[in-house]
Amino acid sequence: MKRLCVSILAFAALVLAAPFASAQDTVNIFQNVTPIAIDANAMTVEVQNRPPAEYPHVGYRAPVPLEQALNMWAKSRFAMTGAGENTLRVTVRQADIVEKLLPVKKGIAGWFRKDQSAEYALNVDIAVVLIDANGGQQGTASATTTNSTTVPEGTTDAEKQAVWAEMMKKAFDSLDRELLPRVQQTIARGAG
Q1: Model pLDDT, residue 80
Q2: Helices 66-77 and 157-186, interaxial angle, to 10°?
Q3: Residue 127: CB partners within 8 Å, gap ≥ 6?
Q4: 22-186, CATH topology level
Q5: pTM of the predicted model, to two decimals?
Q6: Per-domain residue ranges for the chain?
Q7: Are 124 and 173 contacting, i.e. CB atoms less than 8 angstroms apart?
Q8: β-strand 116-131 against 78-80: which pairing, if any?
Q9: Measured distance CA(192)–CA(185) in Å, rounded
Q10: How many whole angstroms separate alpha carbon 166 and alpha carbon 179?
């Protein structure tokens, strides 16, 4: 019986620890990807509409800040061939995670329930443009992705960071599905 209790506790500890993401977990989603070859000699990543690093904006508090993760994503997805005078410009038109506090039951009734206390909404809007030496656009692709989730009362900062990291992973998976095929068709080496 004692062994069974220890086994159950050990299993519970593993299950509870599994969903919590770290900065390394976020970095790992950018590895083992074959980048798209782009006939360009440089890539720039520009951020428009940078959200403030204050509440209710929380993307800067993620294990890897959202803006930094977007830079890592772009660098892992596109490989410059060095051919020609083109520049690949990745414009992050919007990238933010916003917290919205939700009403929770107060008083005696609140003691016996655990309400969802916050909702997080992530929005990423990206445009990828191949610019020639004269400033002309040789190809464009863009995509927007959104997702949201809620967390219960008593969620720790570490648990919130894990939620934000998972939201970011979903956003990057969506960008990979939506944006990369468009880049492949309109911008990539040999496209057109």
Answers
A1: 95
A2: 30
A3: 90, 91, 93, 140, 141, 142
A4: Double Stranded RNA Binding Domain (3.30.160)
A5: 0.79
A6: 22-186
A7: no
A8: unpaired
A9: 7
A10: 19
Positions in the chain whose pLDDT score sits under 70: 1-29, 105, 107-113, 189-192
Strands (E), the chain: 36-38, 42-47, 78-80, 87-101, 116-131, 137-152
Q: CA 91, CA 48: separation in Å to the nearest integer?
A: 7
Q: How far apart are CA 45 and CA 43, in angstroms?
A: 7
pLDDT tens, position by position, 13-57: 333 333 434 555 555 667 778 899 999 999 999 999 899 999 999
Using CA atoms, how far apart are residues 174 and 182, in angstroms rounded to an integer? 13
Phi/psi at 33 (5° precision)? -120, 135
- Give me the pLDDT at residue 192, please: 46
